[in-house]
Amino acid sequence: MKLAFLLMGAAASAPVSLRGSDSLVSLSSHAYTYFYPMLVMDETRVQQIDAGTMVPNKFSYSQSFVPQQSKTVVRPNVDTLYTSSWLDLSTEPIVMSLPDTHGRFYEVQMLDAWTNTFAAPGKRTSGTDAQNILVSGPSNKSGSCLGLSHLKLRCIDAPTSSVLALGRIQTNGTSDYSAVHEVQKGFKLAPLSKWTSNNDIQSDTSSKHAQVGDKPLLPPAAIAALSAKEFFSRGSSLLLVNPAPLADESFLQSISELGIVAGKEFQYDALSDKVKDALDRAVVLGVEKINKIPEMSNKLSRPGWSKPNPNLGKYGTNYQLREEVAVIGLFANTPEDAVYLNVAAVPDSKGKGIPLAADRVYTLTFDKGNLPPVGAFWSVTLYDEKGYMIENAIDRYALHSWDSLEIGADGSTTITISAKVPATGDSNWLPAPSDGISNFVLTARFYWPSEQIIAGKWQMPAVHAVGAQSSSSSALLATTSNLETTSTTNETSDASASGNTFVVVALVASAVVALAAVGLAIGQQRRDTRTKRREPMLSLHSAGAEDPGRSFQSLATPTTVTPGKTIIAMDHYSAL
To answer: pTM here?
Structure first.
């Protein structure tokens, strides 16, 4: 089963700790873990810019959801459209103008070169009125807002010169496209010097018509193919222009033994053979580990909903978690803005997981007064076991809090998941595979979740198997299913990987890959009008899903490991 999920931990991966007894290989492996996310982030940026899918300091945007028939993006959402840009702050600050969305939810997730989210302007943090934000890099942030008070700029200091601005805009179905497109036109960028001279933003700010190459390289594969010399030289070079957080100082001191020193160029050829051998071995081990992470994340044997991980997006010194997320969900959002939960199985009488299947009828019931506590909205989306949307007669792939859901006499709201229309009607129906046999997965997304959701105090109600799908009628069978229907708590939804405890959270974004849905959606729209088959394009996700902008993630399948030549085979994109 090839599902793309974001590893979310019941308990976060333990921070890297170094001891004097650590071998050079171990130390080198820690260094690989430390630099990997930044290299994948940078490779994604470089490839998107080179391919023309993104233009520095200009917004690109998706104009539609990923089409149902698409097999390029894994787990795309049908909740938001994206507006995204790579910011280059090395020369001067950038002014980002955000429009008045008239109460519509949106957020602009801002990620630094290390994949940490350091700001998220939008409805939750700054409201929905029009606003101008001065974004300054580390070389020009000092006093950048001084003397500009008359311009009414909000100031954000970015930790690194390279920044990804990933905007998600609430989109209430396809009928809402035109309204969202008007909102997107209000997202603008300009260098401070140009903005102040004109007191406005350049009018041509969008790269929505950028062409996408047929066969772009994938960032994870490119990084996996690097030799030790290439990998650590690139990491050290990026460190020169993207300062590490202060909390990393002790770690950087420890790896100076490997010739990696902040503020200095890396001289691989000048190292001793012993250190070179350790670095070479670390790259082989690192690629082997990277290859295993998606495989681990696909093992969903336990029933029940996954748990939210409060550490996503802000990793501190938890370098291992940061690396794992870079592999599975590169542009993972912080839980304050979005939480994604997943369920793929219900428990049997012994508590073992039985996959959700189209030959059964399931219900998901929110008791009166117990709908998801969110500041924006929530959704429940159904995918096949590969993470793709499933064609159905009413063209419905998710149910949302903004839909006209029927409320029961007792005040509860019940969603029915089945292959056939329930006898009660289709208002609360989430169509399962019409073949009546395929397995599927449900993903719940919560935008601007309450602290109750983030802390796990509010839990998604259990999915209940209430009977078999009738072959002669669309009504639910009254007979009791032999599946256990008692509620399962999140206590049972842990999955173990690499010696750490993880929970799978639905995702769509990846490591590797490209940005958010912007480029991918643009290219996909063109692809839909042509009959010629193309290779998967660079996603502008993760798909992301969060769906990213959509943040796109590619799912990696391992291939033969050869020092400096190992390639990770990427065959799917996943969106956040």
So the answer is: 0.78
Phi, psi dihedral angles at 554 (to 5 degrees): -105, 145
User: Domain ends where: 477, 506, 535?
Assistant: 506
Q: Cα dist. 110→7, 101, 116, 515 in Å?
A: 21, 19, 8, 13
Torsion of CA 329, 518, 85, 444, to 10 degrees: -40
pLDDT per residue over 333-361, tens digit each? Answer: 999 999 999 999 998 888 888 999 999 99
Residue 461 lies in a domain: yes
Domain count within the chain: 2
What gap in Å lies between CA 140 and CA 90, rounded to an integer? 8
The reply to whether 5 falls in a domain is: no
Question: Helix, strand or coil for residue 264?
Answer: coil
Residues 325 and 191 reside in one and the same domain: no
Percentages (nearest 5) of helix, strand, coil residues in the chain: 25, 25, 50
Q: In which domain, by residue range, is 392 found?
A: 319-506
**Would 370 be classed as within a structural domain?**
yes
Query: Does residue 329 sit in the same domain as residue 477?
Result: yes
Please write the tens of the pLDDT for every residue from 74-83: 788 999 999 9
Answer for the pair 568, 291: CB distance below 8 angstroms, yes or no: yes
Cα distances (Å, whole numbers) of residue 347 to 309, 356, 463, 468: 23, 10, 10, 16
3-class secondary-structure state, position 220: helix
Give dist(CA 185, CA 497) in Å, integer.
Answer: 43
